[in-house]
Amino acid sequence: MSVSSRLDHAFLNAPLLPLSNRSRYILMSDCHRGMGNSSDNFLKNQHLYFAALEYYYRQGFTYIELGDGDELWENRNMKNILDIHSDVFWFFTQFYKENRLYLLYGNHDIVKRKRKVHSLFPNLTFYESIILTTDLLPGNRSHISLYLTHGHQASLLNSTFWPLSRFLVRYIWRPLENMGVLDPTSAAKNYHVKNKCEIRLNQWAEDNHHILITGHTHRPILPAEPACYYNTGSCVHPRCITCIEIERQAMTLVKWSMSARADSTLYVAREIISGPVPLPNLPAL
After folding, report:
1. Fold entry, domain 3-278
2. Model pTM?
């Protein structure tokens, strides 16, 4: 299958969620929650992530995770991840109880598509894609649809041949990474691979006249001018996490990081990187 075919297939039976002036969605991706060891890239930012979750829960946002939430290539046991990051999953249960939790799978947690790996959420479906659309609103005159997926479909090695990639990460690149050697096939760690993925994703969005939002490459993208392709970034940046807020039919790219007050006390700061940018109104083909 081509990149276009894989993305077309991903959205074939995607669930639809309403998008209105009252909608509040927070899009995060690539948390890569691990087992609390030296390979757990999420560990250094867990306090930022928890503070962000608390903010979005209190503000009434619906949480949508665009894949690679849990690191299941390097780690085999989901139970250990649940135990180590129990505070995060406790907050997830609060969103879940109020029907405000949607978890997509990416290449690093693709095993979620076939079996229940979250014992906390026995009835939760892990989707490959979700579409936010104004078409569900009665009497709506405009058409706005946001296509959400992880973005690994742009890479043959991370989609069709993901078992091979998992093997390489688990037994070759993970040990080498501990010695300072980065995985050359990773879209997050190799700029050439990253650029190729983003070009392919953007091309699919333009060809199909869709607004596409992904993660996968870990590079946040939210242009000031209307565009077809956007990216949430990740939760494993060296000193921050990034995400996209959707509120009042506008998108805002936000960074959460540690900051210091004048008296040198530290606090978790929410900073707008780009936006709010009104959602593009793209007519149907």
Report:
1. Purple Acid Phosphatase; chain A, domain 2 (3.60.21)
2. 0.90
